[in-house]
Amino acid sequence: MSLHGMDVEAGRRLSKEFARSSQRLLDLSGSLTPLITNVQWHGDDGQRFAQDWKAYRSQLVAAGHALEAASNAVQRNVEEQLAASTTSAGSGGSTALDRLLDSASEEAGDLWDDVGRVTSVLAGTASTMWHLAQDLAPLPVGNLMDAEENRATRFGDFVNMGWGWLISGEPPSITQLVSNGVLFVAATWNTAATVTSFGFHNPHLMDDGRPVAGEPIPLTVGNPNKSDANGRSETPVPSSISAIVATTNAAYGDAGMAGTEDTGIRITTVDKPGGPPAYIVSIPGTTRWMPDGAANPTDLTGNLELAGGNLSTAAEAVRLAMEKAGIPNDAPVMLSGHSQGGMIATALASDSSFTNRFNVTNVVTFGSPVDSAPIPASIDVLALQHAGDPVPQVDLADATLLPGGGVSATRDNNAMVVTLPNPDIDPGFAGISYHDSNRYVESVTQQEGGGPINQYSQKESTQQFLTIDASQVSSTVSNISRKQ
Description:
By secondary structure, this protein is of the alpha/beta class. It has 13 helices and 13 strands. Helix 3 packs antiparallel against helix 4 (139-168). The longest helix is centred in the first third of the chain and has 48 residues, at 44-91. The radius of gyration is 25 Å and the shape is globular.
């Protein structure tokens, strides 16, 4: 007789192992806390680590509870399997067997989802524990751990490219290969330099580190040409696409200010009657061009990460900032970004773990390369590009080297790409002056009265973010940062 459904003995063993693992993690979270709190560590680093430990402990506890839930789910499947088997044996009819097969199929799907969630939590917990050990280790050991982790991550990027090729049938783009190649060479050099110095010096060349996000700081809503009491530009009322672009442009001015020492993203909430609040996340582009792994993550390294098809630390920090801002799972979200900010927006919109957490309905980019981002068709994307701006072309229209030696160029999404006339200014070297974010605000203001920009603004998905009533709008800014 063939077996249908679950092997109940294997299921019992799996349930018990999940339960034991859950208890170990919960015990670990409790036993480590007194050890850490009793360490005599004064100064800013000690205070920062104590704060970080609270987050680490929360993740350990969450992983423990997730394993407990998985244990219960498996046990429930065991019990239902036994009940179904008993019913089937008693009746001997095909109807009971059909019910058993249907139940097994449904429960197997639920179990697969549960195991997937647990696997994700465990991967995050393993990473957290590695970083905790790295932070507690003496400087030479911590530097060596960091350098080797960075090199392993870079190798993993190539594995991910190969896996993407395998499941999609599309080879990596030229831009992806070059970007990830540069990052891997830099990571290898970092490891060599760190080992040579016996761990006392890690140059962190093109090392993207770990994401950090600050608490949201309230902003005044009004005229972007005016400053609020804290010296920041006011957030404009999102009455049009040009106003949304202007908010992203205003976020550039937040870098280096109190509370946003590295760089800031703005989150605008639109709360109109008759619907849930909608959130506009405004992400500026590159604000630092050095590749030295410093605290500001919107730098040259961030550009290479995103061009390589990876989620950069800046992108992960945006995710953390959105979570700290309390954006609900089902609330409509628009991601707006200029240059690297647009690359962050499209990378997040292409990441299933992000879109499972946040309900991204719209993306607006300007001066950004978007052709290589596999954004789902369910998300409405508007990509604004000056005709002579060289930056949107850095992905080479998703040009791909084919195994036979040919080249293919096909966009990986259904974005509405709008080519704007060049502003009447000196183009500068290779047209780089056309990339200026202020010029995009001016161009969109001039062009949005009709044509494709107006068409996009009239979409049902877009309308939930637009209002002329300032009383329906609030805004915050959050620091995003990088930790080595």
